[in-house]
Amino acid sequence: MKVGILGAGAMGSGIAQVASTAGHEVILIDTNEAALQKSAAKLQKIMNRLIEKGRVDQATAKGIQQRISYKKDLSDFKDCGLIIEAIIEDITIKKSVFSKIETVVSEQCVLATNTSSLSVASIAAACKIPSRVIGIHFFNPAPLMKLVEIIPAIQTDPTIVETTKKLIDDWGKLTVLAKDTPGFIVNRVARPFYGEALRIYEEGYTEPATIDWAMKEIGGFRMGPFELMDYIGNDINYTVTETVFQSFWYDPRYKPSFTQKRYAEAGYLGRKSGRGYYDYSEGATKPVPNQDQTLGNYIVDRIVVMLINEAADALYLNIASREDIDLAMTKGVNYPKGLLKWADEKGIQEVVNQLDKLYHEYLEDRYRCSPLLRRMARDTKTFY
Ligand SMILES: NC(=O)c1ccc[n+]([C@@H]2O[C@H](COP(=O)([O-])OP(=O)(O)OC[C@H]3O[C@@H](n4cnc5c(N)ncnc54)[C@H](O)[C@@H]3O)[C@@H](O)[C@H]2O)c1
After folding, report:
1. What is the mean pLDDT of the chain?
2. Is 0.85 surpassed by the pTM of this model?
3. In CATH terms, is domain 185-384 a member of 1.10.1040.50?
4. CB neighbours (10 Å) of residue 368?
5. What pLDDT does 117 receive?
């Protein structure tokens, strides 16, 4: 089957590499000639590196490159069996592009969007055959990140959900099914990792270096929240938070942080601008964390119970299955443990107690405990 990818930016290029590596002929389309050239040059560099490391041989690399055709005109999608759209995150543009693609492809062609935050249902509604539209959400960089969220819209034909999931599994990815709601699984459940860390910092408990130390050394996370925000970019991370907040009709649980907004506005974007919560200039001294165990435990407990609360609430609202929620967080953002498994280990009653303590201290809706956790504690149930 020929696979069409629209948008040759960071995501489209990565997805094209994945599809081509899986053996598909790929048509990669972008309206911007420079983006196409950059994409091809980047793939060349990646292949050279993989050859150097002995991960692929010359012939395989050549095959991966040759199977991708770089095009500018939508009509080149005509023989494709699957299109994955990865253009700018703008609902009006996406809708218009989907209705145009439909005039080119056959009725059997599946149309997928890689959107991170838009409604798949509204994109599907722009099509004559909405039942063939689905969300396939890759993570960046697509060739390295194992997790892919599959998002059926309410209009999507169940057979298409099944075949799409199987296809992406066959590409060597780990797929999870998520309901068409803001942030799907990962971008929803992960919000407190950043938000609660920023809140602890804003309250003056301690500095980013200490919060990062606690989350890594005590919590077992691979990166601390501030290191990770600097890595992702404060502009990008802030926008995702703001989008999720707005999409949830301003639920205070997802309220963005002024600290991060100001960092983004100031151009303290993180690694890419040389400065974020940390200074990345040459010779800069690294701040020393306060390795106080009591403070460290407080930080980890507070952030982890907030994460568990999000995971439990996602399960409560049927956003995804128990297994998929845990898999999404361990494979999508490398958490040391599935959050629901973590809840069992901590004890559900203990999680509820810690959340209630926060709630009673702040009297903010942000700290409200998911009804599912409360019921489970009452009935002495566990997730697994
Ligand atoms: N970057 C991430 O971490 C990430 C992760 C998952 C999903 N996404 C989603 O993937 C999509 C693409 O993101 P990205 O980071 O690759 O963006 P990007 O800006 O790197 O690339 C977008 C590309 O689309 C092209 N484009 C724009 N409008 C077009 C049109 N009408 N027709 C053809 N090409 C067009 C642009 O020229 C550009 O090359 C977005 O929906 C984004 O939300 C991004």
Report:
1. 97
2. yes
3. yes
4. 17
5. 87
Q: Taking Cα atoms as reference points, which of 305, 269, 290 lies closest to residue 212?
A: 290
pLDDT at 41: 98
The Å distance, Cα 138 to ligand 1 centre, comes to 12
Regions of the chain with pLDDT less than 70:
none
CATH 3.90.550.10: does it fit domain 2-177? no
Strands of the sheet containing 68-71, edge to edge, are 68-71, 26-29, 2-6, 80-85, 110-113, 133-138, 147-152, 174-177
* Distance between Cα 218 and ligand 1 center (Å): 37
Residue 287 in contact with ligand 1 by CB distance below 6 A: no
DSSP 35-50: HHHHHHHHHHHHHHHH
CB burial readout 229-266, b (16+ within 10 A) else e: bbebbbbebbbbbbbbbebbeeeebbbbbebbeebbee
Residue 113: strand pairing partners: 85, 135
Give 12 Cα–ligand 1 centroid separation in angstroms.
7
Residue in the block written with tokens 């991960």:
55
Q: How many CB atoms lie within 10 A of CB 83?
A: 27
Residue for token pair 């004559």? 128
Q: Cis omega before residue 143 (within 30°)?
A: no
- Atom number in ligand 1 closest to CA 8: 39
CA gap 35, 7 in Å, rounded:
8
Query: Where along the chain do its domains lie?
Result: 2-177, 185-384
16 lines ligand 1 (CB under 6 A): no
